[in-house]
Specification:
alpha/beta, six-stranded mixed sheet, two-stranded antiparallel ribbon, 10 helices, about 40% helix, about 10% strand, binds guanosine-5'-triphosphate, binds magnesium ion
Length: about 280
């Protein structure tokens, strides 16, 4: 799929992160728990090299619990601090701050020896729509940052100060100029990290349908009352979904775009079920 996903403002955000880096103590990278591989931005890793880092597996309420547990194990084995969060309900966000304090413990102790009480400054980074602003709002206990269910909501950087003195820098979501593997772009698009306007929604839905039929067939069939989907191609599945939902246009044809949008929407909101697209075995 040939997509233009890297608008100019992302270059600007990268530069702004670079400029602020000197101030930053810890990086909290917000990943989408359904796609921890694809939502890990290699540019952010490179940009923040040398800074202590914590990974937040956000939107865990939408992901497959069994697979999320495997991811936690994976990060633990890799020596990466990680926690599981649902920033919409506020689950796991406090735990992430405990991890921040843990990685900062030595510095905090040194500061306190010198009689200093410096605020910890956290860079909150991640791909568009991962839930960065929601995470910050949950920690702040107020709607300080604008949130929206589409990518590209946050447009500028903003410091938000918590009651305990910790300061968080909210940043616009960024992608990177080239996806090495085209599946990365697809997985980001499934979850809504790439603007739908630039995607071929029908093709995207076909790819998702095939993937679900392979890994979550029971959920897919139960949701759309499908039968015998073994070996079906993506377009056959989407058409079948459209037929079952009665999305018929003039001449008895199936409204393929409508069925495509429904499938994507219902995957994104976990109406089909809690689904993870990527497992640690692929890492
Ligand atoms: N179910 C669920 N939804 C979430 C979670 N975190 C955020 N959301 C929703 O995801 C959407 C995007 O959230 P934002 O906080 O705006 O995401 P962002 O990373 O700041 O996005 P940009 O600023 O566009 O890069 C919103 O509709 C949120 O309500 C979560 O843990 N679970
Ligand atoms: Mg935001």
């Amino acid at each position: 799929m040939n997509i233009q996903w890297f608008p100019g403002h992302m270059t600007k955000t990268r530069r702004q992160i670079e400029e602020k880096l000197k101030l930053i103590d810890v990086v909290v990278e917000i990943l989408d728990a359904r796609i921890p591989l694809s939502s890990k931005n290699p540019d952010i890793t490179e940009l923040t090299k040398g800074k202590p880092r914590i990974v937040v597996l956000n939107k865990s309420d939408l992901a497959d619990e069994v697979i999320t547990k495997k991811w936690v194990e994976y990060y633990k084995n890799a020596g990466i601090m990680c926690c599981v969060a649902d920033s919409e309900k506020g689950k796991g966000v406090a735990e992430s701050i405990n991890l921040v304090k843990q990685v900062m413990a030595e510095k905090i102790a040194k500061d306190s020896d010198k009689g200093m009480n410096r605020a910890i400054k956290i860079l909150v980074a991640g791909v568009p729509n991962a839930g960065k602003s929601s995470y910050i709002n949950r920690l702040a206990g107020r709607a300080s940052a604008t949130v929206g269910d589409r990518p590209g909501v946050t447009r500028g950087q903003q410091w938000i100060r918590l009651k305990n003195g910790i300061e968080l820098l909210d940043t616009p979501g960024i992608l990177w100029p080239k996806f090495e593997d085209e599946r990365v772009g697809e997985h980001l698009a499934f979850t809504g990290a790439v603007k739908d306007e630039i995607m071929d929604i029908e093709l995207l839905a076909c790819k998702l349908a095939e993937l679900l039929n392979e890994n979550y067939r029971e959920l897919l069939c139960a949701r759309y009352k499908l039968e015998n989907t073994d070996g079906m191609q993506g377009y056959e599945l989407v058409e079948y979904i459209g037929k079952k939902r009665g999305f018929v246009i003039s001449g008895g044809e199936i409204d393929f775009l409508r069925a495509s949008n429904i499938l994507l929407d219902e995957f994104r909101s976990a109406k089909i079920g809690r689904i993870s697209i990527e497992t640690p075995e692929e890492a």
